[in-house]
Design goal:
The protein is α/β, with parallel strands linked by helices and 324 residues long. The chain folds into two domains: 7-205, P-loop containing nucleotide triphosphate hydrolases (Rossmann fold), CATH 3.40.50; 220-320, Magnesium chelatase subunit I, C-Terminal domain (Helicase, Ruva Protein, domain 3, Orthogonal Bundle). 43% of the residues lie in helices and 15% in strands. The protein contains 15 helices and eleven strands. The chain has helices at residues 7-23, 28-39, 54-63, 81-84, 118-121, 125-130, 165-168, 182-191, 209-217, 224-238, 246-249, 258-274, 282-293, 301-305, 310-320, and strands at 44-47, 69-73, 85-90, 95-100, 107-111, 132-135, 138-141, 147-152, 173-176, 252-254, 298-299. Strands 2-5-8-1-9 form a five-stranded parallel beta sheet. The chain has a two-stranded antiparallel ribbon with strand order 3-4. Strands 6-7 form a two-stranded antiparallel ribbon. Strand 6 (132-135) and strand 7 form a beta hairpin. Helix 1 crosses helix 2 and helix 1 (7-23) crosses helix 3. The longest helix is centred in the N-terminal third of the chain and has 17 residues, at 7-23. 37% of the residues are buried.
Length: 324
């Protein structure tokens, strides 16, 4: 018997998207992608200049699901224990007690993650990958669902620490957020008037139901042709000359890891589920390609000298493959 997705659960995702869009002006694609990451138990790196509602998106998403929300401002003097927690001596009991850090929440906003050194950035790794945190000799499970949304400012490099490739790979997507359009900017002005009340965020779904939605996403079908399409895209990033794209070889130092392949599978299923489809289509892969691959392709110095970006490479790869 063929398994089909539950359309009532898909309707709940539509309500969740609508609730966040009610509060945030514009950024509909960014909101959708953040929710896709939530549906596949992934983490998101959001890159954009200040003031583009990055924090508001995530905070509204937490409020509309009733999940716990914590914001961590990354600074050069931050310590790993400031994120995970630490052991504190209690003079009354003469024992060390564990004080849990802000990472113990359903939604964790790592604001300006590239402002803290690598040892602090890596404090998130165990939580992002294993969904647990080790303090001293004890391991503590994180609440479920658990998602990290990290932000970084692309135009400011002074006093920042680039994220290591191993940590970048842990983010299921790197989403670039752009300025609002003309009409959206006018709407922001209107909303900020003193006589205008911001929309109230309503809880449209229980936080525990997110787990049910994640399980429901797994029911979406991925055909062998789609699997081949995804695999070719990822393989071209590694060995473009084998697919007739010799011009790309000089620009790519390292291609995408197998995590990119898995990200494509998971996220395309989630996108199909949101659109109430039982199966993944090629357009899902094309829509997700830039966000899945842009942080997983390491460019050569030649690419940087010629101002070739990862977006240029991804676009060339997509255009080179025949439509399914």
């Amino acid at each position: 018997m063929q398994t089909t997705i539950n359309l009532e659960l898909a309707d709940k995702v539509s309500k969740l998207i609508a609730e966040v869009n009610k509060v945030v002006v514009g950024q509909k694609s960014v909101i959708l992608k953040c929710i896709l990451a939530l549906l596949v138990d992934g983490n998101v790196l959001l890159e954009g200049v200040p003031g583009l509602a990055k924090t508001l998106i995530f905070k509204t998403l937490a409020a509309s699901t009733g999940g716990t929300f914590k914001r961590i401002q990354f600074t050069p003097d931050l310590l790993p224990a400031d994120i995970t927690g630490t052991r504190v001596f209690n003079p009354q009991t003469l024992k060390f007690e564990v004080v849990l850090g802000p990472i113990f929440a359903n939604f964790v906003l790592a604001d300006e993650i590239n402002r803290a050194p690598a040892k602090v950035q890596s404090a998130l790794l165990e939580g992002m990958q294993e969904k647990q945190v080790t303090i001293g000799n004890q391991s503590f499970p994180l609440p479920r669902p658990f998602i990290v949304m990290a932000t970084q400012n692309p135009i400011e490099s002074e006093g920042t620490y680039p994220l290591p490739e191993a940590q970048l790979d842990r983010f299921i997507m790197k989403i670039k957020i752009d300025y609002p359009n003309f009409n959206e900017e006018k709407e922001i002005i209107h909303r900020m008037q003193s006589n205008f009340d911001l929309p109230n965020v309503e809880k449209v779904i229980e936080i525990n139901e997110i787990i049910d939605l994640q399980m429901e996403v797994e029911k979406v079908k991925v055909s062998s042709k789609i699997e081949d399409y995804i695999t070719k895209i990822v393989f071209i990033t590694r060995k473009p000359h084998l697919y007739g794209l010799n011009s790309l070889s000089k620009y790519i130092m390292y291609g995408s890891s197998p995590r990119a392949t898995l990200a494509f599978i998971k996220l395309s299923k989630a996108l199909a589920f949101v659109e109430k489809r039982q199966f993944v289509i090629p357009e899902d892969i094309e829509y997700l390609a830039f966000d899945v691959l842009r942080h997983r392709i390491i460019l050569t110095y030649e690419a940087q000298a010629e101002s070739v970006t990862t977006e240029d490479i991804i676009l060339t790869i997509i255009k080179s493959l025949p439509k399914i």
